[in-house]
Specification:
242 residues; alpha/beta; TIM Barrel; 10-stranded mixed beta sheet; 8 helices; 12 strands
């Protein structure tokens, strides 16, 4: 089995509940959405080569011809695991585009599996639910995607909450009060104990930062319905990590 993989490297998780943890990141190409604030648009198209780090943290890279095999990627990840890591993050793009590949790869890796996902591909999640340990699920607002994804998000959360799940919601100047309210209501209905991360957008592609006062208001509103609400920006960019 083979898949188109953009890169595999060791770095620091900069977002969400596990911010600051050392992880190996495996970035798959392809995505079913196109979010305005996306900072990995380059991963939407297939890559000729998979760029993999020679040694964990070395920032020296070698290239594998895409699509790479499960065996090739396993070898490279195991080499990086010579340095202790918290988990292996499958990201993208949308990693569940290649759920079959993840299902074949995950059992070969002696480390926790961390899934970073847009929370819309429910059937694909079912394929790997027994393979993953931690799920970072985004809620994608209509103002960002131009789509209504509430039904998919609800079904995804219902399945994902059997794991160590947290929800991440990026807010920007374009975020509306109505859609934010709907998002926190949705999480409340599924399980108010699910940790909820408000992530102020890093301005990009014409997407503007949310006002600081709005962020405080969002957190106040979320805390009225949810047990654990945190505001965490993209910290890896602040410290110059990939």
């Amino acid at each position: 089995m083979r898949a188109n993989v953009v890169e595999a490297f060791s770095s620091i998780q900069g977002e969400g509940k596990y911010v600051g943890c050392r992880q190996i990141f495996v970035r798959f190409s392809g995505c079913n959405l196109k979010c305005r604030y996306c900072d990995t648009l380059v991963s939407h198209a297939p890559y000729l080569y998979c760029t993999t780090e020679e040694d964990a943290g070395s920032r020296k890279f070698i290239h594998l011809t895409n699509p790479v095999s499960v065996e090739e990627l396993t070898e490279r990840i195991q080499h990086l695991l010579k340095v202790r890591h918290h988990s292996i993050s499958f990201t993208g793009g949308e990693p569940l585009y290649r759920a079959d590949f993840i299902h074949a790869l995950a059992p070969k890796l002696d480390c926790k599996i961390f899934l970073e996902t847009n929370g819309t591909l429910v059937d694909e999640l079912a394929t790997v639910i027994d393979d993953v340990d931690i799920i970072s699920m985004d809620i994608k607002l209509p103002s960002i995607t131009g789509q209504d994804l509430w039904q998919q998000h609800r079904a995804f959360m219902q399945l994902a909450k059997t794991k160590d799940l947290y929800i991440k919601l990026v807010v920007s100047a374009e975020t509306t009060a109505a859609e934010f309210s709907r998002a926190i209501q949705l999480v409340h209905e599924v399980d108010p104990a699910i940790p909820f991360i408000i992530q102020p957008v890093t301005p990009t592609n014409g997407c503007n930062a949310a006002a600081p006062a709005d962020v405080l208001t969002y957190q106040e509103q979320a805390l009225a319905l949810l047990d654990d609400v945190r505001v965490i920006p993209q910290t890896h960019k602040m410290i110059g990590q990939m």
